[in-house]
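Follow-up to my earlier ticket, as requested here are the two runs.
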Amino acid sequence: MEADRDSDRERALKTVAIGLAQAGRYDDALEVARALRVYQEQADALTDLAHALIQAGRIDEALEAAHAIEDNEMLTWAISILGKSWLRVGKRIRC
């Protein structure tokens, strides 16, 4: 039962962090994402935060959020996703 509660808590925190990022509350989103204890949930929240920051043109902060991911494999995955996102944003800006 406690494992289920912890899992529910992690999913809820991830949802809150993503919602905060989408609302432009980046500092709050980062704080909530860093509170996540499950690496996958944390990586998902931080990746979504970084993506929102890229969309807002805040590249340095996006990289900072991505580098808060503690698992190296997930960090590599996130950086790959963010690179693709940055390319799309960059193309839109130039057009």
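Run two:
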Amino acid sequence: MLAVMLDEPVRTKLAERRRSRRSSRCVDVTICEAGGAWQEQTCTLSWNEQGILAALGTKVKIGELVLVRDPENCVEREGRVVGLGRGYGRRREVAIEFTEPAPESWLDHRHSGAYS
């Protein structure tokens, strides 16, 4: 598992290693601690089959196990926090890698994403 702060050179390296195309479309998701201690509604900054980048107000740690839920159909994906990035007011970029790749259509069923 790669655990890094997401500064610009690292972002470039991660983009070069990307295993599948990425959507930059904002999609509403609910992220919660796997044990149920906290839950937060947010939206993705980007996402692909391997995981998501989201802005969270809840403080999380690298390696923390979380669930990412599509609030429209309640389908959940388990993931781990693998990176912490820039702050946006009270929120911070959080990179979450799914423990199992998600079907490409998992979040795309609602939005035809703008892929990069």
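The only thing I checked on run two: The chain has one domain: 4-14+26-97. Let me know what else you need.
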